[in-house]
Design a protein that fits this description.
With about 300 residues, the chain is of the alpha/beta class. Helices cover about 25% and strands about 20% of the residues. The longest helix is centred in the middle third of the chain and has 17 residues. The protein starts with 5 loop residues before the first strand and ends with a strand. The relative contact order is 0.14.
Length: about 300
């Protein structure tokens, strides 16, 4: 039986921001599934099952929405942190990351947190991330970093992500320089425009099996198991966790097992999502170098990551 090393737990599919490239809440969003917050009857049994596994697992408590919109988030993170085999963190747009939340993520020992910030100027950021406010987000981020330093805490690791939209690519270097000495990592993600394209640049010519089928499980806010992180609309769900079966039972069920067999046999064209997706290439086209400024720069098809 396969056991995933990574779980995406979509604690909320609701969002307080509308970002240009978001498949759920953006101006050209195409996802039609209902949105809501994950309920205790879903998240508690899932986390307890993961905590029973004899394997280290990274739980990413985010998905298509803003995690801080779920009123249960403190309980979700606290329960996850109660299990020694679970590493947990989440991606946020930063608008709701006030001082009480900063205090919590530090005192709870959250392993990591990532902020989505697009560029360095409010004029472009606030247009790309409609209903967001760069000044407020940066203030919240600086407050978290200051509090973490004051408490002499090593956690949470703080990372930033910028999407490489054409309108802000001239801000990329300034974005990296602004934050590289303050946070634990800076990522610049390549922009795609699904559903028209799920293609990444610099993909190897030879197609290979996608490791996500053996490493990642995605639980949507309503308990449905997704195929992977590219299954935005949860179109290929084998069932609902808890109602139909446990997480591991569903993830090792016939639907995903058959898809793993297709990948092993090189029959990628036999699945409507896999035939047009390049996420498989992440494991086969990744290179880390040092740039002239001494940063570690890791290039992959989906992003460039910078760290000291």
């Amino acid at each position: 039986m396969h056991i995933p090393s990574s779980i995406i737990l979509e604690v909320s599919a609701l969002c307080n921001v509308s970002c240009l490239g978001c498949a759920l809440h953006g101006p050209d969003g195409f996802v039609v599934r209902p949105f809501g917050n994950m309920k205790r009857e879903t998240w508690e049994p899932v986390i307890r099952e993961i905590g029973s596994w004899d394997k280290k697992v990274c739980v990413s408590a985010h998905g298509g929405g803003e995690p801080l919109m779920n009123p249960d988030l403190r309980d979700i993170l606290s329960l996850a942190k109660s299990f020694p085999n679970i590493e947990v963190g989440f991606l946020t747009n930063g608008m709701l990351m006030d001082e009480s939340w900063a205090e919590f993520v530090i005192s709870a020992g959250l392993d990591w947190i990532a902020f989505s910030i697009d560029g360095v100027t409010p004029e472009t950021h606030d247009k790309i991330r409609w209903k967001s406010d760069l000044v407020k987000v940066e203030k919240n981020l600086e407050m978290l970093l200051t509090l973490k330093k004051k408490k002499q805490s090593m956690v949470p690791k703080v990372k930033l992500n910028m999407v490489a939209y054409d309108a802000i690519m001239d801000q990329k270097d300034a974005f990296v320089e602004k934050w590289i000495n303050k946070v634990d990592g800076v990522m610049v993600s390549h922009y795609r425009n699904p559903p028209e394209s799920k293609r990444w640049p610099n993909v190897p010519a030879e197609r290979k099996p996608c490791s996500l089928l053996w490493s990642q499980a995605v639980v949507a806010w309503d308990g449905r198991l997704g195929l992977c992180c590219e299954d935005f609309n949860i179109d290929h769900s084998p069932g609902r966790v808890g109602k139909d079966a446990g997480l591991l039972e569903l993830w090792n069920g016939p639907e995903l097992s058959n898809l793993r067999t297709l990948h092993k046999n090189g029959q990628y064209e036999n699945h409507p999502m896999c035939i047009e997706c390049d996420t498989w290439a992440e494991d086969y086209a990744r290179e880390t170098l040092k740039n002239k400024k001494g940063y570690n720069v890791t290039d992959s098809p989906s992003q460039t990551a910078y760290s000291k």
